[in-house]
Design brief:
This protein is of the alpha/beta class. The protein is built from 8 helices and 9 strands. It has a single domain, classed as 3-Layer(aba) Sandwich (Rossmann fold), CATH 3.40.50.300. The chain has a 9-stranded mixed β-sheet, with helices on both faces. It is globular and about 45 Å long.
Length: 207
């Protein structure tokens, strides 16, 4: 029997919810930096733009549990914790999605890890789709293979393709090779929850 997808479409169009935008992120391989990038985006939306933002860990990597123990938070519960406008939900499963979305978030950032195939329908329902790759030569091939996989999806060329720390030359070469104008580098930033002015400027230009 086919697994039922998350009920994103039902929740997003419910009468009592005000979710403005849902952003989904996937990586082309483990270690690409999906969670790091997603956290930067969530804290940009919540802290810089002042939007009530939820970050959903839609994978089993348990990175948010490690992050929780590294900082002090304004609120901590068994399955989530918060800092001002940003709430981070750990190890989210399908049936939790409706309750999270019903809490009047303006933005929701969904971290699918490397699970594109397992979460394809949920990812494609997101308003904005972000794919995170890597600048290493052997990992560039994984990005190329990923794009070959999604070429049949309408609008795949409008997604955001991010390569952390890639040089201008590397980005230019990949754009030319893949015919992908929405491919860009992510600047180096060590702490994803304390953003610098430069990162905020990059976020504003990119998103």
């Amino acid at each position: 029997m086919r697994k039922k997808p998350m009920l994103l479409h039902k929740v997003l169009h419910g009468r009592n919810n005000i979710v403005r935008e849902v952003i989904g992120l996937v990586g082309t391989h483990h270690g690409a930096g999906v969670t790091h990038t997603g956290l930067m985006l969530a804290f940009y939306l919540g802290e810089e733009l002042g939007k009530k933002t939820a970050f959903l860990e839609c994978n089993n990597h348990q990175d948010l549990s490690l992050l929780q123990h590294s900082y002090e938070w304004s609120e901590e519960e068994a399955d989530h914790y918060s800092y001002q406008n940003v709430t981070l939900f750990k190890s989210v499963i399908s049936k939790q999605i409706p309750d999270i979305f019903s809490d009047e978030y303006e933005c929701c950032v969904l971290d699918f890890g490397t699970g594109y195939s397992a979460n394809r329908e949920e990812f494609l329902r997101c308003d904005r789709k972000v794919v995170v790759g890597d600048r290493a030569d052997w990992n560039k091939q994984k990005l190329i293979r990923f794009i070959e996989t999604v070429k049949a999806v309408p609008g795949y060329d409008t997604w955001n393709y991010l390569i952390p720390f890639a040089s201008h030359t590397e980005v230019k070469e990949l754009r030319k090779r893949l015919f992908m104008k929405n491919l860009m580098s992510v600047p180096f930033h060590r702490n994803p929850i304390e953003l610098s002015k430069d990162i905020n400027v990059w976020m504003r230009k990119s998103f």
